[in-house]
Amino acid sequence: MTCFDWHNLSSEYLDGSLAPVLKRKADDHLAQCSDCHERHQHYRLILESLHSLTRIGVPNEVQHELETGVSQSKTTSNSLFPWVSPAAIKAILRSPRTIVPGFLIICGLVILAALPKIRSIYETRLQKRLDSNNFAELSLSQVHAIHSPSTTEVSDEFSGDEDYAGDEMESASQEDSNGEADSASSGVQSPSQLWRFNLRTDSPQEIRSKIQQTLHQSGALPSSRYIHGFLAPGGIQFDALIPADKVKDLQEELASYALAKDAQKTTANKPFTWFRNKSKRVLPPGTARVVIWLSLN
Amino acid sequence: MFKTLQNQNNSEPKSTAELIRNSGDLIYDLYYSVLWNHKGARALYLSLWRKIENDLKSQSEPYQKYSRSWVLQVGIDLLIRSSASLGRALSPSEQVMLDANLNIPARLRQFESYLHKLQISDQILLLLRDKYGLAYSEIAAILRIPEGSLRIKHQQALRSLEEWLWDRT
């Protein structure tokens, strides 16, 4: 038997539960190995120490408390959770490092879960105020919050980036163009209307001058940013504020360009479209925003 | 408080009073030995019997389980859960003093301090086996450990104690 074997069997050896053959081998090993013999003596001392440890009975007052049931009535009356031991409750209360972050996480989850509902309530209330034409009470950011979709960023400036991605927008919005045109012809204008005119042409520079002239004739506000048009990748964009009652005239004028001989030569299926969007910004009363996009074929 | 159970075909203890009479001293002593203070032992002891009383009322467990082993199992589960909050651990200065003492007989006189350096489960194992003389099979059932593993753990605990006491580290 090796020292390793003896260590593995020492527990049984100390118990005296070892098989006779193994016991004889263990005895032989202990007689030969002084280190294991020494350890064996130490183990015996430890076991004796363990066995001689003082035994304490249940104190009388604890026994009495148990028999009279005082402790039970105390705990059931004092504890909110009688099925949880007081020790466990104390342990929980002593660990604020667990409770505080846990509470914050739960609060965060509740707020996240309620966020869509809160947003819808907020928007509904703002929409009601808008419907009652109380624009003066609303800030620009509140109006943006109503009109902008939740997934898109709204820029405060009239930026070209917003509009001169015209081709994609055109294809997405052409389905609505007929219905929107009907409402345009009816002349009913909301204060925040954005009209888009998309025109595909082979000669944008020629049409550009015509559109500049038309916008001037329509009474476009000189403060409009891109009243003269600016060259953007893929085409030319105009962005102007005109009186709302001039939209219909402008539309007919632009339609005449679209039906002109040059424009009809284009290979595009629909050389000219117009449609109406809700404006993402507050416009001066009685005005409409017009964005004209001349795309190159 | 002591509810008598209506089970005619069983020779096991019939009430919490009987369970307390059979195992109360052992459990209290075990609690005191591990927690090392009367206040914690008292609180845990009362908590245990309240739990057992509630279990007896609900009768959710088969009655046959209400023996000493079952009471010890419930009691030791409670002890392991609560030992961190109720028990008294060795302070760093006590730890240093234990290590600084090179006299073996003096170390043996502080045997309990060395015993408390062991993990709770190892302390319980040594106490159940070598202080109270419970059989390995019963301890294995109480601690829910296979008997072979229990013997190895016992051996390892003894070896740790031996190394600390005789400074073999």
Walk me through the structure:
Chain A is of the alpha+beta class. Chain A folds into three domains: 3-51, no CATH class; 95-154, no CATH class; 160-296, no CATH class. Chain A is built from 14 helices and five strands. Chain A starts with a helix and ends with a strand. Chain B has 169 residues and is mainly alpha-helical. Chain B has two domains: 10-88, no CATH class; 89-169, Orthogonal Bundle (Arc Repressor Mutant, subunit A). Chain B has nine helices and no strands. Chain B has helices at residues 16-35, 38-58, 68-86, 92-100, 104-109, 111-115, 120-131, 136-143, 147-165. In chain B, helix 7 (120-131) crosses helix 9 (147-165). At the A-B interface, helix 1, helix 3, helix 4, helix 5 and helix 6 of A face helix 1, helix 2, helix 3, helix 6 and helix 7 of B.
Concise overview:
The complex is a heterodimer of chains A (297) and B (169). Chain A has 297 residues and is of the alpha+beta class.
Specify the helix fraction band of chain A.
Answer: 55-70%
Largest interface by residue count?
A-B, 38 and 45 residues
The biggest sheet of chain A, with number of strands, parallel, antiparallel or mixed sense and barrel status, is:
5 strands, mixed
| Order of SSEs of chain B | HHHHHHHHH
Unreliable spans of chain B are 1-11
CATH superfamily grouping of the largest domain in chain B: Winged helix-like DNA-binding domain superfamily/Winged helix DNA-binding domain
**What is the share of helical residues of chain B?**
over 70%
Order of helices and strands of chain A: HHHHHHHHHHHEHEEHHEE
Number of strands of chain A: 5
Write the layout of secondary structure elements.
The complex is a heterodimer of chains A (297) and B (169).
Chain A: H1 3-15, H2 20-32, H3 34-51, H4 60-68, H5 70-78, H6 86-93, H7 96-131, H8 140-147, H9 160-163, H10 166-173, H11 177-186, E1 193-201, H12 204-217, E2 226-232, E3 235-243, H13 247-258, H14 261-264, E4 272-278, E5 287-296
Parallel strand pairs in A: 1-5
Antiparallel strand pairs in A: 1-4, 2-3, 3-5
Chain B: H1 16-35, H2 38-58, H3 68-86, H4 92-100, H5 104-109, H6 111-115, H7 120-131, H8 136-143, H9 147-165
